[in-house]
Amino acid sequence: MDKSLLLVDDDVGIIKALSRLLTRSGYTVKTAQSGEEALNALLSFDCKVVLTDFRMPYMDGGQLLSKIKRLYPDIVALVLSGYSDFESVKSLLNAGSAYRFLQKPWEDDELLDEVENAFTHYAKCLFQRQSQKMLLASSDALVEISYPSLISQANIAARKLLGETFVEGRLLDDFWVESDRSRLHGQALSIGQSMSMRLLNHTELEVTCRLAGPSGVVLSFHPVTDGELLNAVFELPSLINYQQLVSLIGQYLNASRPMVLVVIKIRSFELWSRMIGYSEAQRTIERIALQLRNTMGESGQLALLANEQFVLCLPDVASEMNALQKAAAIIDPVTGQADVMLSQLDYAVSYCLIPDDGDDPRTVLNNLLLGNMMIAEDAVRMFMRYDKQAVERKKHQISLNQALFHAVEQGQLFLNFQAKFDVAEYALSGCEALIRWSHPDFGMVSPSLFIPLAEQHGQMVDIGYWVLKTAFITAAKWHSQGVQFGKMAINISGRQLMEPDFIHWIKHHIQLTGVEPTLLEFELTETFLLNNLDDCAITLNAIAELGISIAIDDFGTGYSSLSYLSKLPINVLKIDRSLILDIESNLNTESLVANVVRLAHDLNMKVVVEGIETLDQLNIVKYLGCDVIQGYCISKPQLEEDYLALLTSFESLSATMP
Ligand code: C2E
Ligand code: MG
Ligand code: MG
């Protein structure tokens, strides 16, 4: 962890002495001589610890730390002052705005100890926040352990996999077989590392370290040798288990004998558990197992694995069509049952063919199960053949999702800027800030891929605030340098708007960065707004009152309802690229765009068209009355310095025009 510290004191002598001491001890130190200077420094200095004097003119240490606590709740604050200030500092300590009070004059060694403790405290809190997010968002079985062995949190998936006794306050050690107990201690796992451990019932689990902090780790658990429901209330002798299934697949692969593997995921299980209780729902699963087994006769094998996934193995199929017919003949009678529960059966079926779909039994099975979980997330019921590429993409997505939790803190994000061109004025009228993620292993990751992940898994709010803060600082800087850039548009995800302190955060950061709100535009997508119209109206009005312009992004991909949107304070409509793709050849598209433009203008909105790549497209949309275009035809999204160079070249071009 980068050990960055902000030192605030109005006494230059103290600043010099402390700065020397801390820099020599390996800290990255920035200094400020007043509260205002400190708040300004925090805009661009990503610091973990603040060490501040208490008595300072204009803004004292108390006022400064209250502001820091509200704006940067993660920063750990230390107050360094004379003992006579202790009473005043006490209220800061009680309110959590300060972590420790250090007395002036100080002893170097003691002060260094306290500073180091503050960094450790920061790392512990960071770990807890990340762990909390991971446990809530993940469908994997995750458990947070406080060193050396205390279970401090387990998510729902973990309790489902490991049993209801796997709860906070128990020792992790108690769950392993004797010989494995000390192994997890002896071998401190680093992030991404795995080891295999056996539970008391000898079920083998793969334990992987997903997050590590100074006080604990987050571990994920996956069954390796036996994928059966661990806490199953039933044991059906006629079913095979995971291990037997793997060896059966292995035999067929070795002999190159054809077999179809069909996974049936019972999606109604969660609903049934809520309606009739967990044990009763499991008994319903048991009934399904028996019925499937009966219908199959001697024609194959059946396994029941974790997550209510059945696997049918039907050997010696002549063709894919033959395989599907055989499988349907077994599944249809069960799903068509008159039974009340079964009539509500909701399931997802996928299959793969052996030996065509892989050559390693474990990989074949695991990929098939993962692929089935993927289709189970969509509302698809029909038979789907295992899609190798989709499974590989999913595995990649899972790794990306984990890495995304660290993107902000590891400084992997940056902004690009793309020009918007006013077709009537023939000048650049603004730009859109677009996020970029550069990961050391994955390279550049497209926002179209990671923004939806972040929205789904909880990283969007942190990422969104990073984008806003960086864009505000950039716009304020350009403005102060006299750069005429029109408006800077920033994409806001629906998740950000739902944050209760969103408007408060915006107001404060406008104040802190000194950005002029009329130079900003927020782009929001139509789908989110229409789904949350009443809540959004309040937030959008507050944004508009601040002087920030509002644009509807990706218009034409959702409901495209202008009458709904007329109830909201919207200034700009951005027509999505997909709507104009065939504009050069399709007259219907032309008249559609002309109508949208007319309606938008009636509602006093400007119209921007996105994704204009050719001069022909530009001329057509200009003719149809669009005001502004954005697209590769003018410029691709660029780094800040390249964008500024583009602005300059456009300025000199327009200076030469009559
Ligand atoms: P968007 O807001 O609709 O942004 C426009 C996208 O179209 C950008 O893709 C841009 O590079 C691309 N584009 C612009 N002109 C052309 C063109 O002429 N042809 C083609 N083929 N594409 C063009 P990008 O940068 O990959 O961003 C994709 C989406 O990711 C954005 O769509 C937006 O929804 C989201 N996104 C990007 N940055 C942020 C951000 O900071 N916050 C949030 N919440 N979402 C963001
Ligand atoms: Mg946009
Ligand atoms: Mg768009």
Any overview of this molecule?
There is one protein chain. This protein is α/β, with parallel strands linked by helices and 658 residues long. The protein folds into 4 domains: 4-130, 3-Layer(aba) Sandwich (Rossmann fold), CATH 3.40.50; 138-223, Beta-Lactamase (2-Layer Sandwich), CATH 3.30.450; 235-396, Alpha-Beta Plaits (2-Layer Sandwich); 407-656, EAL domain (TIM Barrel). Helix content is 45%, strand content 22%. The chain contains 25 helices and 24 strands. The structure holds ligand C2E and magnesium ion (2 copies). Ligand C2E binds at residues 418, 434-435, 446-448, 451, 464, 467, 491, 493, 523, 553-554, 577, 610-613, 630-632, 637. Residues 397-651 form the EAL domain. Residues 4-119 form the Response regulatory domain.
